């Protein structure tokens, strides 16, 4: 897993946005509904929060993503976008965004290295390849300024600590 002070990797990956999820009927998504996420482009506007999670529609992840949805309003004042990242396909992410009214984009680690590049790819077991639960704050220069990783199931990041890290990264 990347540590504080490490340079974030160059990341380009498919992304499901709330706008695309609203504009197309669930079950009718095509590649035209999938956007491209570029970490470099996102960082042009300030710090970024990346929340890695194993997968949509699982009990713990659904709860976490909905908690982050509810918490995201606090980040709006800090002007830092939040992106969820999992190994799910962009189409399943679009359906999840639609069903749970997620108001932030979800990045697809399907068929790319974003999860491995951040060092949170599960390497063993029946579900190897999914992301371990982790949060990173990346400052505008591309430096990781905050990390958090779950050590037990049903644990979630301290959102106050993430907010403080975002505020600090924005000042740098």
From TrEMBL:
Pfam families: AhpC-TSA. Residues 1-29 are annotated as: Disordered. PROSITE patterns: THIOREDOXIN_2. This is Redoxin domain-containing protein. It comes from Halobaculum lipolyticum. SUPFAM superfamilies: Thioredoxin-like (SSF52833). Residues 2-171 form the Thioredoxin domain. Keywords: Redox-active center. It comes from the Archaea.
């Amino acid at each position: 897993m990347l540590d504080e002070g490490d340079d974030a990797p160059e990341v380009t990956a498919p992304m499901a946005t709330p706008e695309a999820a609203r504009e197309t009927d669930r079950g009718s998504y095509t590649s035209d509904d999938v956007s491209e996420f570029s970490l470099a482009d996102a960082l042009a506007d300030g710090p970024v929060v990346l929340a890695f999670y194993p997968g949509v529609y699982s009990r713990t992840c659904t709860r976490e993503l909905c908690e982050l949805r509810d918490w995201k309003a606090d980040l709006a004042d800090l002007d830092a976008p939040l992106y969820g990242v999992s190994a799910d396909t962009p189409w399943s992410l679009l359906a999840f965004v639609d069903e749970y009214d997620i108001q932030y984009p979800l990045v697809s680690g399907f068929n790319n290295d974003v999860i491995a590049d951040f060092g949170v790819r599960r390497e063993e077991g029946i579900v190897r390849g999914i992301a371990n639960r982790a949060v990173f704050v990346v400052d505008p220069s591309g430096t990781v300024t905050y990390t958090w990783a779950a050590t037990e199931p049903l644990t979630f990041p301290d959102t106050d600590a993430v907010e403080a890290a975002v505020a600090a990264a924005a000042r740098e």
